Amino acid sequence: MKNLRLLVLLAAGASLILSSCTQAPDPEQDPNADAAYKRDHRTEQYREAQRSNVNY
């Protein structure tokens, strides 16, 4: 019984981990989705540098 509970718990944890990892869409099939994915996964410094109201 304990082994079954442990197995179910491990399966649920693995499912959660795998579902939280997102894969980049294929740019050849959907360029707009690929561009949106890249925008969402930029680092904050890169986003700051791309803003038009940067003070020098």
UniProtKB/TrEMBL annotation:
Q: Which UniProt keywords apply?
A: Signal
Skewed-composition ranges (Basic and acidic residues): 36-50
Annotated signal peptide: 1-24
Identify the stretch(es) annotated as Disordered. 21-56
Q: Under what name is this protein listed?
A: Secreted protein
Q: Which organism is it from?
A: Hymenobacter psychrophilus
Ranked from the top, the taxonomy reads:
Bacteria, Pseudomonadati, Bacteroidota, Cytophagia, Cytophagales
